[in-house]
Amino acid sequence: MTKIIAITNQKGGVGKTTTTLNLASSLGALGKKILLIDMDPQGNATTGLGIDKGSIKKCIYNVLVDEEDIKNTIIRTQFKNLDVVPARIHLSGADLELSQVEARELRLKNALMKLPPMYDYVFFDCPPSLGLLTLNALTAAQTLIIPIQAEYYALEGVSQLLNTIRLVQRHLNPKLTIDGIVLTMTTNTNLSTEIEQEVRQLFEKKVYKTTITRGIRLSEAPSHGLPIIYYDSRSRGAEEYVLLAREVIAHG
Fold first, then answer.
1. Rounded distance between C-alpha atoms, residue 73 and residue 194, angstroms
2. What is the CATH number of the domain that holds 38?
3. For residue 210, which of 249, 240, 246, 180 has the smallest C-alpha distance?
4. Which of 70, 101, 151, 184 could share a disulfide with 111, CB 3.0–4.6 Å?
5. How many domains does the chain have?
6. Where is the AAA domain (predicted)?
7. How would you classify residue 103: left for phi > 0, otherwise alpha for psi between -120 and 50, otherwise beta?
8. How does the average pLDDT of the chain come out, rounded?
9. What backbone phi and psi angles, to 5 degrees, belong to 212?
């Protein structure tokens, strides 16, 4: 059975795309079949997989706005067991174009219902906002992974996200759950340790044991169009994302 996961946090710069790319590719390397859907108009997950946006004929925009069959937008990447539905800048207009459409929050969910059961996991890389694109992802997802960076403003905006999740559960997707919270950009400082302790105290068992350390190799990898496991498999970032992937598998 396919598990559908949205990776979301409306605060920017918390490692959403980094986590989506590297968790998806690590799961693929572990033998799971993965579809990554880029829901962010910036398309960083798309370029982070080495895909030239200029070569893309159809993307998630066409699925949401034109009701294109999602199977026609899937691109097979060069990485083991990993496919992607890409995004281009056109997606930035989707919120406005869908604003007057009936059942606009269900476009992504309805599209996925037409997809054959060919994947173990489907991931959504959500934009740093709580607009219609994220709402579509939250409505279509079964569960959420929330990256929180181990920095001073770590919990800023998380209460707003939790309120949005509750509203989605009440009106659109009652079965939506939080699979886990992943601490990102951790450092060997007292502040980072204090933030981690605070997050673990607040969310308890929802926080993954694996944390993602801030690292140069992890930052470099997307500019080469490679997930960290393929850019430098011996780096700390690669090891941590494989550990996180194993935790996600263990969650079922």
1. 44
2. 3.40.50.300
3. 240
4. 70
5. 1
6. 2-178
7. left
8. 93
9. -105, 115
